[in-house]
Amino acid sequence: MRYSGLALAWNAITGNRSWTPAWRDAAPRDHYDVVVVGGGGHGLATAYYLAKEHGISNVAVLERSWIGSGNAGRNTTIIRSNYLMPGNVPFYEWSMKLWEGLERDLNYNVMVSQRGVLNLYHSDVQRDVFARRGNSMRLHGVDAELLDRAQVRALVPFLDFDGARFPIRGGLLQRRGGTARHDAVVWGYARGADLRGVDIVQNCEVTGIRVANGRVTGVDTTRGAISAGKVALAVAGGTSRVASLAGLRLPIESHVLQAFVTEGIKPLVDHVITFGGGHFYISQSDKGGLVFGGDIDGYNSYAQRGNLPTVEDVCEGGMALMPVIGRLRVLRSWGGVVDMSMDGSPIIDRTGIDGLYLNAGWCYGGFKATPASGWCFAHLIARAEPHAVAGAYRLDRFASGRLIDERGAGAQPNLH
Ligand SMILES: Cc1cc2nc3c(=O)[nH]c(=O)nc-3n(C[C@H](O)[C@H](O)[C@H](O)COP(=O)(O)OP(=O)(O)OC[C@H]3O[C@@H](n4cnc5c(N)ncnc54)[C@H](O)[C@@H]3O)c2cc1C
Question: How confident is the model at residue 416 (pLDDT cuts 50, 70, 90)?
Answer without folding.
Answer: very low
